[in-house]
Amino acid sequence: METSEQDIKEMVRQKYAEIALQDKETNQASCCGSGCCSDEVYNIMSDDYSSMKGYNPDADLGLGCGLPTQFAKIKKGDIVVDLGSGAGNDCFIARSETGETGKVIGIDFTPAMIEKARANAEKLGFHNVEFRQGDIEKMPMTSNIADVVVSNCVLNLVPNKDGVFKEIFRVLKPGGHFSISDVVLIGDLPEGIRKTAEMYSGCVSGAIQKQTYMELVEINGFNNIKIQKEKTIVIPDDILANYLPQEEIDLFKQSGAGIFSITVFAEKPVEACCAPGCC
Predict the structure, then answer these.
(1) CA pair distance 56, 71, nearest whole angstrom
(2) Distance between CA atoms of 46 and 233, rounded to whole angstroms?
(3) Among 105, 145, 242, 250, whose Cα sits 20 to 30 Å from the Cα of 269?
(4) CB-based contact 71:35 (threshold 8 Å)
């Protein structure tokens, strides 16, 4: 029986409610990380935030697949929205960029994550960082409000990615932009590779083809679209060897197919004032 979008959302909600109560090391083994079972890498997806201004270890659950805030061109006074804000890590880094005159709004649909993020913000004394519980397909905010939207390894978990891009377009101010890190696929993953990847890194399960992802950005009206960073997600050989014969591993490596982390930038056009009375 095919799993419905609502069922997928509920599974994600339950999973991330559990993650909110775990420590970072456990989280890295349970979602986007490699865990302790490999000698080759510690974490295959997330980049190192620790040197970035605004980083707070209590808010870093090791669940990302990039550093979107590093590429987001956030200016002092900007209103920044973080989709799937988790414990608040990207929000607090964005806050270091936008300063006290700006505002950061994190949206997450897991109550336990919202509670954890709010506790972290209170501990840090940040009064211009706000966390709202809600679905990023139906954001709890008015239109044309955000200067910048960021997100880190979240859209791949959402069944209706087209709906999310429509919402991003709605909440951005004309001329505003987004910088989003996400997981995508190139080519067809053999069944054995896909199953191993999903077991090893749950974030792969909702990933779509890179070309399809980029087309969704374009058809939803964004311009100046570019990939700011791309890296291959490598599942170490010592993991693959536990589940697949060497011949299948070699064929996969030669195929050109793979799992990638990309950080995508795009702008909402500055729309001309053409309707009667709009100015």
Answers:
(1) 19
(2) 10
(3) 105
(4) no
User: Rounded to an integer, what distance in angstroms lies between the CA atom of residue 251 and that of residue 253?
Assistant: 5
Six token digits for residue 177: 């932009």
pTM here is: 0.77
167 neighbors 141 (Cβ within 8 angstroms): no
Q: Which domains does the chain have, with CATH numbers?
A: 5-267 (3.40.50.150)
HSE at residue 89, side-chain half, CA atoms within 13 A, is: 27
Type of residue at 165: F
Place of tokens 């590429």: 71
Burial of 254 from C-beta contacts in 10 A (0-12 / 13-18 / 19+): exposed
> Taking Cα atoms as reference points, which of 118, 201, 193 lies closest to residue 157?
201
Helix/strand/coil (H, E, C) string of 149-185?
EEEECCHHHCCCHHHHHHHHHHHEEEEEEEEEEEEEE
Q: What is the pLDDT along the chain (279 residues), one digit of tens a residue?
A: 445 556 544 554 455 444 444 444 444 444 444 333 333 333 444 555 555 555 454 444 444 455 678 899 999 999 999 999 888 888 999 999 999 999 999 999 888 889 989 999 999 899 999 999 999 999 999 999 999 999 988 888 888 999 999 999 999 999 999 999 998 999 988 777 777 666 555 567 788 999 999 999 999 999 999 999 998 887 777 777 877 788 888 888 888 888 888 999 999 999 734 334 444
User: 258-267 and 172-186 as β-strands: parallel, antiparallel, unpaired?
Assistant: antiparallel
